[in-house]
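Recall the central idea of this unit: under ordinary conditions, the amino acid sequence of a chain determines the structure it adopts. In this exercise we apply that idea directly, starting from the sequence alone.
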Amino acid sequence: MQEAGNILKKYWGHESFRPMQEEIILAAGKRRDILALLPTGGGKSLCFQIPVLLQEGIGIVISPLVALMEDQVKALQKKGIKALAIAGGIPFQELDALLDNCIYGNYKFLYLSPERLQQDIVQQRIKQMNVNLIAVDEAHCISQWGHDFRPAYLNISLLRDLKPEVPFMALTASATAEVVRDIQKQLELRDALVYKTSLERTNIAYRVIQAEDKMYRLQQTLRNKDESAIVYVRTRNATIEVARELLQYGYTAAAFHGGLAKKEKSGRLDSWLKEEVKVMVATSAFGMGIDKPNVRHVIHLNLPESIESYFQEAGRAGRDEQPATATIITNKSDLPQLKNQFLKTLPDLEFTIHVYKKLASYFRIAYGEGQDEEYDFNFSDFCTQYQLHSEKTYNTLQMLDRMSILKMSQQFRKTASVQFIISNRQLLNYLEENKRYDAVAKAILRTYGGIFENKMPINLSSIAKKAETKEKEVIAILQHLEKDHIIDFDYHQNDASIVFLVPREDEAAIYPFSGYIKSQNKNKTDKIESLLDYISTDSECRSRQLLRYFGEPSPPACGICSVCLPPEREVARETIKKIYEEIMKALLDGEKNSRELVAIVPFPENGVLKVLTLMLEKGIIGLTATNAYKLNKK
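Accordingly, the structure predicted from this sequence is:
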């Protein structure tokens, strides 16, 4: 461990290891298979990086996100450690040269996505490499019971055949007991040592706030505009809208989502890391693998889909061990939204069979035929042709992939992407002179907000329908607009490929998996119910609830969460009546939002908000489209 300590000090500047790191590094030196469960910010990467540096040869790291791989590789390269990541879109000759470097170029780290392992050239070159350790980051992705299951992770076990003598190290920040067992099974870990520290984060105050006016509560949470924060929302449009509103209130804020160009993503992330931007409004993938220690607030304006994903995202706060908050701002409208987004799009047995049959019809596969045949696939066209709900169909295709009935590429969501690269006024002038493009351009503008600021994926068939034309005509018009430098347009005609792994047998192919389909749907439903229990339970410490979910038997109360802190003084019944009268008087003068009412009504804020909730429930008042309160007509 003295040599390990020297490496720690030389490359990372630390004098000592964090809890459990030393034991894991020692075990890795003895070439044992390891499963490490460390909290977010607990220093998981050092657990495999230092053992690789202590030995001859190269370490292979499997990671789920390209951005995460690139960040870790850049960090290693800055330290003078030879590392590379092989992402998508690399020409064959370049891929060939990069893999040769791993064999002959004295590289210490090769980062791969699990999808890359399916390539023959990658498998053949790994056989020739002097590999000293295989690390699987975000290992919960391999478990069908986990919150972020990725079918491609199931391919990782083939490394056992390619390099049977090389030890495995699996690492994750959030896994239930069931997921821990599944990780060991799927990765074929041999007599693995399981290292688990408490997931407790004593510096994070977990809070759940009920609020009709979420933006007002968000600003209350972000009182100090100089503090670094992440605000999680569910959609790309919401990132733009919330960031724009925060800017209007004097915050330095930026939107971050998957539709941004790579250069734009890098620029915004860099501004946030350099403290030029304090608040990042993002969709859920943001933050994984990003080491920013001084995030003071992580705020969810929409409910996450599971406690696992929430705990992981909340854990991005306070990595410097200083006080931080993780806040869910919610209201009654969130519940149906959550169920619509996640539960209503789960495919049952009947729908799975229906989609499978439609696929066979789409590709004209005869009964008993189709095995090992590959087809180009236009997902949007498929859904339009058979009038299928896109999200539910996507989940069904993933289910068929997991059941090894077919193998599906994952690129189809990027069929067509558009960004207008001139101003709105210039566009109107252009359309005035080019009338034939008017209907398509305006259909896009009406459907996709923020398309001047970001390149966004569009549904070609939907635009064709709104413009009352054919999809081919839409594509031709968009190509003309690109030629005239009006838009930036990416289009891939064959946006996915599907390989049928078994002959077409309709119901007979699917029925054996009926139990599996039910269990998967129950797993998803249970996760959402667990999250809703957490949201609604305000009688037990929030940290204790989270830790018990992950199997910690007797977690202590944290003393700082929204349950442990002394509750605001209850509002007396006679006070409620007075507040009610003041609100009624204020609303007689016209609609007002909660901020205006709190300023007008001469009572404490918690009392005003409580009475507003009661009046909403009784139908005395209603909410307008702009979240203002109004008196309902009798």
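The mean pLDDT is 88.
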